[in-house]
Amino acid sequence: MSRSAHPAGPRYADVLPEGHYTAPPADLNALDPKVWAQTVGRGEDGAVRVGGVDVKALAEQFGTPAYVLDEADFRERARAWRGAFGQDADVFYAGKAFLSRAVVRWLYEEGLNLDVCSGGELTTALSGGMPAERIAFHGNNKSTEEITRAVESGVGRIVLDSFQEMVRVAHIASSLGKRQRVLIRVTVGVEAHTHEFIATAHEDQKFGIPLAGGQAAEAVRRALRLDGLELVGIHSHIGSQIFDMSGFEVAAHRVVGLLKDIRDEHSVELPEIDLGGGLGIAYTSDDDPREPHEIAKALTEIVGRECEAARLRTPRISVEPGRAIVGPTAFTLYEVGTVKPLDGLRTYVSVDGGMSDNIRTALYDADYSVALVSRSSDAEPLLVRVVGKHCESGDIVVRDAFLPADLAPGDLLAVPATGAYCRSMASNYNHVPRPPVVAVNDGEARVIVRRETEEDLLRLDVG
Ligand code: LLP
């Protein structure tokens, strides 16, 4: 997506390119519940509270930048997904969105399963107390060591991503005297309506085995012959930040088509179908995500209908939401440093983090919202660009936003919907230590992932 240069006088949004804010919001102090965690609100003094805790107190106690996560909101979203799919389906939270031992504990308590895609995520999941049986292990290039660890620890499912990996897993399982439950990840040829870097089910990409040309059918043939494997189902993940259910409809249709072919060829009805994750969330007020119960209803109906048409027993459905559970539960709290008006261009507001704690704006051209949270303000709206402190001009946190014109160094800003793919994709660019994750609940705040320190960085530098 290309953005034209802004002409002079950018206080008002009529100069913004199409598709972005066209007018300042009616009330700059308002916090749209679509993009903020549910316990977020302004107190009488104008400062924002989350989980009953004032953001100024959080900044004082934990420093900035910090990811602030609303535990009640997380649990409620997890529960909503679990409840929506019911006992005949499984919800695997996608740990890549954000994983810590506290989160693993909450997921376990709320009855969810966990999708991991590396040895590190597996270690965190097990260490956080998730029973191995409730873990699915993903990845397009799992190492022999990772596969061995997964099989030894007894993970419930390994999702096979290639012919070579299938042989590796079978061999490792057999040599450990085990039969590993596996799914085969297929690419169904659906290109989800999302940023091209995160669309995954079209065929020209690294994940999965294409249905096209009979490759997936051949993978099934081989998997059924390998002693170390118990093939239980087919997996498909069509992309991320998707709002439109039609991609899932096509995917389900094609996956069920494969199940039917398998039944016809092998007289085997595979008992599971995993439709992956990818459900979108609201980053700005313009986004309209679906509720878990609508998604569950749509997916269950699609699979049920397709199976009935193919005269198949309806398999157990799994889904793997990551962003849709954790994304809206957290915001990033920053302190304003420099405010730099560039005459006739725009005002740059620098915060004390940036692309090291949120790479999504630079990487995907992602849109975010932002609000002044340490106080309210009646000042007129000023069109700004919120940028980080890194040595790179692409270090943008929020490309176009309205903030009160009296914004000053020392004010606190919060960027909502940063629970997913921000801490988990954080880096140490410019040797900036990564921020902590602070969980708030019922008037209490606690660090669940501590702030990295410069000593942590030096410890890795062995001279
Ligand atoms: N299942 C599989 C097999 C996946 O590959 C993914 C995401 C998910 C589930 C969870 O997707 P979610 O529900 O969170 O959209 N870094 C990108 C997103 C990459 C997603 C990779 N796979 C971003 O920041 O938007």
Walk me through the structure:
With 463 residues, the protein is an alpha/beta fold. The chain folds into two domains: 41-70 and 328-460, Beta Barrel (Lyase, Ornithine Decarboxylase, Chain A, domain 1); 138-321, Alanine racemase (TIM Barrel). It has twelve helices and 21 strands. The strands form three sheets. Strands 4, 14, 15, 16, 17, 18, 19, 20 and 21 form a nine-stranded mixed sheet that branches. An eight-stranded parallel β-barrel has the order 5-6-7-8-9-11-12-13, surrounded by seven helices. The chain has a three-stranded antiparallel sheet with strand order 1-2-3. Helix 8 runs parallel beside helix 9. It starts with 40 loop residues before the first strand and ends with a helix. The site of ligand LLP has 22 residues, from helix 10 and helix 11.
